[in-house]
Amino acid sequence: MPFQKDFLWGGAVAANQCEGAWDADGKGISCADICTVGSATQSKRITPVLEEGTLYPSHEAIDFYHRYREDIALFAEMGFRVFRFSINWTRIYPTGEEETPNEKGLAFYDAVIEECRKHHIEPLITISHYEVPLALTQKYNGWASREMIDIFLKYCQTIFERYRGKVKYWLTFNEINGATGGFGGFLSQGILNEGTKDFMHQVDIPQLRFQGLHHQFVASAKAVQLAHSIDPAYRVGCMQIFSTSYPLTCDPKDVIACQQRNHIKNWFCGDVQVRGAYPNYIWRYFKENGIEIEMHPEDAETLRAGCVDFYTFSYYMSSCETADAEKKKAQGNLIGGVANPYLKASDWGWQIDPEGLRYALNEIYDRYQIPLMVVENGLGARDSVAADGTIADDYRIDYLRRHIEQMREAVEDGVDLIGYTPWGCIDLVSASTGEMAKRYGFIYVEKYDDGTGDLSRRKKKSFDWYKKVIASNGEDLA
Ligand code: BG6
Question: What is the mean pLDDT of the chain?
Answer without folding.
Answer: 96
